[in-house]
Amino acid sequence: MNMRIKTLTFALIAGIGLTACGDPEPAPDVDAPAEEPAEPAALETPGWFMVDHDAETVEIELVAGTTSANNYWNFHGIYGGAGEVVVPEGYEITITLTNEDPNMGHSAGVGEIQATWPNNFSEVVPIFDGAVTSNPTSMTESTMPGESETITFTVDQAGEFALICYVTGHAASGMWMPFTVSAEGDAGVRLN
Ligand SMILES: [Cu+2]
Q1: CA 7 to ligand 1 centroid distance, Å
Q2: In this structure, are 112 and 179 located in the same domain?
Q3: Are residues 16 and 10 in contact, defined by beta-carbon separation less than 8 angstroms?
Q4: Same domain, 18 and 93
Q5: Tell me: the pLDDT tens digits for 5-29?
Q6: What is the phi/psi pair of residue 19, to 5°?
Q7: Beta-carbon neighbour count of residue 79 at 10 Å?
Q8: Range of the domain at 33
């Protein structure tokens, strides 16, 4: 839609230009195919994401409440479904969740990606065995301010999942990030 409007606007401006200076160049074809959609952000390897392709492991030092954005309910300052963690299929993933939020407990687990998130998760079943921190829905017994917890799991299935904080209300307020298991062996993080 946007592209279409831009194309039309450009055609209009070009048309005005044509009238103003009598330039005989033809106006651009409005029916030309729209430009390609913008490329997704490049995969980066920030200091908190370490991949070892020989050992087939990924180590993620995941920080909750890194910044005050979204009431500290973020991972590395990212929230609302932005960003993306990408790991190669078959690798062993270690996530150490550290909670730097001064106020609230948080958790982290890999689950189904959802269009909308419930306030309360009645049952937490991670996609991969072991892929969730302890007491993930609890405001008092999840990973509390200043605490850390490490989980290890093998991503034995490619697909598009989500890294979720299961504490009541957090995912619904945007504390989640896409988590993709790549059949092509891609690894890294998109930071926006
Ligand atoms: Cu949280």
Answers
A1: 42
A2: yes
A3: no
A4: no
A5: 444 444 444 444 444 444 556 555 5
A6: -65, -45
A7: 23
A8: 1-38
Q: What is the DSSP letter of 7?
A: H
Expressed in angstroms and rounded, the spacing between residue 127 Cα and the centre of ligand 1 is: 19
190 Cα to the center of ligand 1, angstroms: 20
> 109 C-alpha vs ligand 1 centroid, how far in Å?
11
Residue 129 lies inside a defined structural domain of this protein: yes
Cα of 61 from ligand 1 centre, angstroms: 16
- Report the separation in Å between the CA atom of 189 and the middle of ligand 1, taken as the mean of its atom positions: 20
What is the per-residue DSSP string for 38-79? PPPPPPB--TTEEEETTTTEEEEEEEESSSSGGGG-SBTTB-
Domain check: are 137 and 89 in the same one? yes
DSSP bridge pairs for 154: 92
* Same domain flag for 104 and 176: yes
* 10 φ/ψ angles, rounded to the nearest 5 degrees: -60, -45
Return the closest-CA partner of residue 65 out of 103, 96, 94. Answer: 103
As a whole number of angstroms, the distance between CA 116 and CA 46 comes to 29
Please give the model's pTM, rounded to 2 decimal places: 0.80
Q: What is the largest CA-CA distance in the chain?
A: 73
69 and 122 belong to one structural domain: yes
Distance 129 CA to ligand 1 centre (A): 21
* pLDDT tens string 77-135: 999 999 999 999 999 999 999 999 999 999 999 999 999 999 999 999 999 999 999 99
